[in-house]
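note to self: dont lose this again. the chain is below, predicted strucutre after it. 421 aa total, dont forget to put it in the shared folder this time
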Amino acid sequence: MTLQPAAHLAVLLVASQLLAPAVWAGQLSGTARLQQPIALPPDAVLEVVLIDAAIADAPARVLGRTRISPPGQGPLGRLPASWRGELPNAGGSTLWQVDLAADGSYQLRQTWLNRPAPNTFDDIGRWRLEPSGQRLVLRGGREAPVFLQPLQGGAVLRKLDLEGQPIRSGHNDRLQRLAVPEPISPRLFLAGLFRLLPQGPTIQLCMTGQRLPVALEGDYKRLLQAYRSAVPASGPGQPLLVSLKGLISQRPAAQPGQGPRRTLVVEAFGRAHPGQGCPQPQMAFTPMATSPMASDQNPAPAHRAQPTLRGIAWKLQALQAQDGPTLINPPCRPPELLLATGSERLSGNSGCNRLLGGFQLAGDQLRFSQLVSTKMACALEVMAFEQQYLKALDQVRQWNIDKRSLLLQDGVGRSLLLYRL
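---
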């Protein structure tokens, strides 16, 4: 149902025979949006009515009704909006920016102020305000959700800990709302359903559900070639699941007379996944799916618990050299890497020599430090491989687990090391 701008907006939800009253439990949630991105009048009211129309030729029965006046107000204030602030980390501080949109999507940027560039990391996903209005939950490409607490009618977002509880510290934990939205242009690994339509190419992002136009620049030609190879010529417009590294930025609209639009720029095409749809939210595509080192063989059973980063002896499967090919079969026993559970210490081996060191872990950010190894004499090719391996470990800034694989990347998302259980 298309909503037209007016002083009163109504949304009608119908409970059919498939959802008999005996089955109903819990709460319903959703998003009402205007077809055109125009401002609502100040006195606008949103009314949502749930009716039971399961019995034919009988009057509909109202099951529930709610009014929001004005729409978009509440604990978060009007959306879209941006919040920004410096929060402490183990070695200094991190500049956070959170962008929330009325369609339930968010953007997050963290800039480590105490690190040399590249020191900026982006994320996107879906936000949800809990029924109490006391906690905002961001779920995106990270292993764990981000918890925030709206304060002062949305003027402030308070950062909570990993359990969603207030941080007991005297340091700053607040992000301040900006006077006007200043959305970031996130650069990150993405998966989505690509379509080639008469009005231009589009992609529906798996992580947010947003549908964006795709710019005819960057690595778009490789994406187009993959689409034409996978989708029959008789079926243009069919969706194709793809993974890629992209930039979401403002670009001029393809149609004359329209303003700039949020657009996806394909910076590096990863791969196509014919016959597949977007994964379930808890199994959403991650940078692992875009890596040429990743493999779809031997997937973990659906019931198997997701492995954790710490406390597991990860075995190296592939190494991407800085200026060379991917090394799939090292000239030695596969190196192992073990991050301790009770301290920030690591151990393992580099193929010939033992390896020890420390690490710093913050969300999906990971950095190794003070790496030392024994000095056993090995074959020349093994020693050369060990130097490449240690150099790759020194460049690690991000980590991600997909099924039973661990991928380590540098600060711009370049794949460095792939491990398996």
